Amino acid sequence: MRLEEFLDRVRDRGEYRSLDEAEKVSWAVLWVLASRVGPQEAEDLASQLPAPLNEALRLERGRPEDFDQQEFLRRVAQQISARPRTAQWDVGAVLSTVADAVGGERYDHLCEELPSRYADLFGARER
Question: What's the sign of the alpha-carbon dihedral 46, 48, 126, 124?
Fold first, then answer.
């Protein structure tokens, strides 16, 4: 998926006013996601997403951190200066687009790296 197509989908799903806003939110969500998954998983995911957004997944952060869905939302909210409830909307817009962009097998593998409750953030049922 090309960058413009990715951002268009995020903008539509998140009901943002501009592609710039969609890009800012996408960067924040991917950055927090990279903190939660292992470096290899982050790299595999980055290889399937458009540049420059994929760079948010490639920032060196060491070992993955173990945090729950609420902490994920709190961190995204902090990145974009929003409330956690707003961040939940933002995360859904971005991660559902990620699921579309990477396809079934990569999405399944990513979900295996995360606790089952994270599936809600992608707009999918729990595994």
Answer: positive
